[in-house]
Amino acid sequence: MGAKSWWSRTDSRLLEAALGLATLLVGVFGVLLPALGVVGLIDPMDTREVETEAATRVPGTATDAVAGHGMTLAGSHQADLVFAHPDLGQRLLLALPELVGSLLLLLILALLLQMARTLRGGDVFVPKNARRLSVIGLTVLVQAVLGPALLAITTEMLVSGTSMADQIPFSATFTGEYVLLAFLVLALGEVFRRGARLRADTEGLV
């Protein structure tokens, strides 16, 4: 008599619903609303947090912040670069890192949702899931590198040729946590691949 699985079809449905809801929220708040802000249909993003070369004062009066070219830089070390009336190009540069990050997250969620659907059959060790995990791992790795780089490049483009350029150095902060996570997911994908191959070999012996 086989052991009864602790995972039920109801659990699968709940997991799929949670992933579907997460996908919807990321699509609306991470992609749709920023895109509408870029084209001017809703209030756009107008602020970018930056690292400053020299400490500026937290604004209390009009003279407490560095201003120019329609921009205001206020804060110390971690400062806010605020655009009074960003044009289309500035709106796009401000929203681009979030848009790209959200699109990559949507790809990950879509792949996880496809994996969750395989739980209905009671077996996740299938070749397709191994490939999906590999794509997820590579996507996380791309985001770990592309996210900070894109943030630094777009910030440089926003302040290039303005009085803010001397205040805001080109810098990108990379964190090892996402790189480690990416390699862990890639390793898990290899486990799934070998599990699927072992199962196929075992079934061939029966």
The DSSP helix count reads: 4
Strand order of the largest sheet: 1-4-3-2
Order of H and E elements: HEEEEHHH
Beta strands, count: 4
Structural class: alpha+beta
Strand content: 5-15%
Mean pLDDT: 85
Q: Kindly, what is the distance between the CA atoms of the first and last residues, rounded to a whole number of angstroms? A: 19 Å
How is the biggest beta sheet arranged?
Answer: 4 strands, antiparallel
State the low-pLDDT regions, or none: 56-64
Number of domains: 1
Shape descriptor reads elongated
What portion of residues is helical?
A: 55-70%
Detailed description of the structure:
The chain has one domain (9-46, 91-205). The radius of gyration is 23 Å and the shape is elongated. It starts with 8 loop residues before the first helix and ends with a helix. It has helices spanning 9-39, 88-117, 127-159, 176-205, and strands at residues 47-51, 66-68, 71-76, 78-83. The chain contains four helices and four strands, in the order αββββααα. It is 60% helix and 10% strand.
Q: Layout of helices and strands, plus pairs?
A:
Layout: H1 9-39, E1 47-51, E2 66-68, E3 71-76, E4 78-83, H2 88-117, H3 127-159, H4 176-205
Task: Give a brief description.
The protein has 206 residues and is an alpha+beta fold. It has helices at residues 9-39, 88-117, 127-159, 176-205; strands spanning 47-51, 66-68, 71-76, 78-83. It has one domain (9-46, 91-205).
